[in-house]
Amino acid sequence: MAAGQQNPRLVAVQVLTRCEDGGYVDAALDAALQKSGLPAKERALCTRMVYGVTAARRRLDAQLAGYCAGKKLTPPICNTLRLGLYQLQSMDGVPDAAAVNETVRLPALLRQKSATGLVNAVLRCYLRDGKPTYSGSDLSVRYSVEPWIAKMWCKAYGEEQTRQLLARFEGEFPTFIRVNTLRTTAPDLIRRLSDEGLTAEPTALPNCLLLRRTGYLPGLPSFAEGLFHVQDLSSQYCCQALGAQPGDTVLDCCAAPGGKSFTVAQYMGGQGRLCAFDIWAQKLPKIEDGARRLGIINLTAACHDATTPYTGVPLADKILCDVPCSGLGILGKKPDLRYKQRGEIKDLPDLQLRILKQAAEQLRPGGVLVYSTCTLSPNENQGVVGKFLRDCPDFTAVDLTGLCPGATVTDGMATLLPHQTGSDGFFIAKLKRGTPCNR
């Protein structure tokens, strides 16, 4: 393999450039790393640089503008400069000299050697200036999100809460796992993980563990034996809110990749009927494989468009409606979502409402439906549920006060803000059906 292909910074710049054409960072990075031949340590370095530059791109560009005024930059050189600046700003483990020297090598490897002098000059000038940080007051630049996102959150939560929320998205997010209660207990799993070199800590939510120093979890024998699955704290609270019991009939309307279905199945004790639906047939094997690994025997995965009737499916006691959303609650894990354009998500509330109403048709009187998203967009959350409740007067919102420590509860619905809950950003509404309604 050519030497250039072994360079983690080169791979990082190539991935960043490829994603400017609309590719997803995680998919582009995974594909590039598989082809790169990089050893584990350099793969980790490349991953940190790609995600870090993506998360800081708007701020980096604002700072680079002062050093590159009037210069026309190609996308690879622009990403090279972003990478250099990010290393100097945010990667304490990389000496300044190494950050500059290794970055200055990249234009030649990118076959744009004429830009070497520019890259060198910009980075050394930034060092001479004392590595200044962004000093402006624009939250969308300081925390590198699209302006409409910052404005939406300021309106919904206030400027100070928005500042804290955005600052939280700049930090690392912890890894939570769900104890598979069909096969083990939390104390036993904590001991087992300790034997495998990991530290697991209990949380306020039973059978939810916080991991320290995770590494590659699928490589653990305990993972292969189906003793746990990885699931954020927010999703586990969502499943707790559903309240599934042994013997229930439960529908998961948008189930892939299956994590919530697995947790619900554990609440059911493997008894009853759990139907896990998803619109994408190619995602069903992942749900089925996960269920087999965890020893879940009462789950059936099937392809279904959640906006259409559930033909041949019995009325359910409980329904989980975790709908497609803008994902603005997981910016810390998927930094490319910071740059979502408002037009990309304008049709989501209509889709979400259609899915919710269709699911409601399948719920028996007295049953419970949980509507959830991993976004912090009021239009997709309270807005959708509010419209649903106005159109369907036989449904009422169940108060979720006390569900999750730190959650904000409005009109009975819970919003999990990461800086308050330690979880992903998430929204949960629990709806109970009374007498049948006419639509």
CATH homologous superfamily of the largest domain - what is it? Vaccinia Virus protein VP39
How many strands? 13
> What's the Cα radius of gyration?
24 Å
So what's the CATH class of the largest domain?
Alpha Beta
Shape: globular
Indicate the CATH architecture of the largest domain: 3-Layer(aba) Sandwich
Query: What amount of the residues lies in strands?
Result: 15-25%
Mean pLDDT: 95
The tally of domains stands at 3
Task: Give the % helix.
Answer: 40-55%
Give the end-to-end Cα distance, rounded to a whole number of Å. 63 Å
**Overall SS class:** alpha/beta
Low-confidence stretches: 1-5
Q: Summarize the main sheet.
A: 9 strands, mixed
Number of helices: 18
The CATH topology of the largest domain: Rossmann fold
Active site: 374 (nucleophile)
Pfam families: Methyltr_RsmB-F, NusB, RsmF-B_ferredox
Enzyme class: transferase
Family: Belongs to the class I-like SAM-binding methyltransferase superfamily. RsmB/NOP family.
Describe this structure in words.
The protein has 18 helices and 13 strands. With 439 residues, it is of the alpha/beta class. It folds into three domains: 3-134, NusB-like (N-utilizing Substance Protein B Homolog, Chain A); 175-230, Sun protein, domain 3 (Alpha-Beta Plaits, 2-Layer Sandwich), CATH 3.30.70.1170; 233-433, Rossmann fold (3-Layer(aba) Sandwich), CATH 3.40.50.150. The strands form two sheets. Strands 5, 6, 7, 8, 9, 10, 11, 12 and 13 form a nine-stranded mixed beta sheet that branches. A four-stranded antiparallel beta sheet has the order 2-3-1-4, with helices on both faces. The longest helix has 26 residues, at 40-65. It is globular. Keywords: Cytoplasm, Methyltransferase, RNA-binding, rRNA processing, S-adenosyl-L-methionine, Transferase.
